[in-house]
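call fold(seq) -> tokens
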Amino acid sequence: MLDLKDSRNFSRTLGGIGLIVGPLLWMLSSALSPAWADDGAEYLAEVATAPNRHVVSGGVFLIGSIVALPGLVGAAHLLQARRVTVGQIGAYLLAVGGLVAGGFVLVINAMEAAMVDQAANRAEMVALSDRGEESIAALVGFLGMFLVGFVGGIVLLAIGLWTRRAVPIWSPLLLVASIGALFALGESRLGSVMGMAVLLAGLAPIAWKMLSLSDEEWERWQVLPDRGRQPARAGDELRPASTV
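ret:
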């Protein structure tokens, strides 16, 4: 139960809930989106069938990223050890990537909804959309946002979860599998929803772990006990902790 008078309980419970509700909102965003065609003209034609829903889809994705943020920060706290871990870096990368992606999707969706306005020249808008997809800036933005933030974040988080033995082994496996699912199936509404569902299934054990801890356990600087020196041999620890 969320206790607003206890910061330990509040951060732990909010984080656990966020790791469930955030991905659920990402799934809802995919389900709401009306446009999935590869061809620029067909894509804008699909946007034109429900421009308001297209904008709402982007807004829901951004809200999902905001809701998931405390959960990913909580995951980084859960994986905290004497030294910085790859899991912590992965959680923060995924948090930043989600926020940037959410803002990007909302802005693009709003622009595309304006492009299909009756007063706009559809042929010119299609040409503008095609030029935007082929631009170097768009390519760099996609690589930085998706590959580094989402893909890199998920992979590092999965490695951190496995090396710290924080959750059952199938959780990091599902996280990695969600990348393949989103790449292979993410160009359709059903496929995107399925990929997000796999991601949710991979994050759910982290949420459960956070919610199952006591406030006293969560209050500790290092929540999980050390596993001997195994994490160091597995490459989980990246640099010495400060002695100050």
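Residues 228-244 have pLDDT under 50 and may be disordered.
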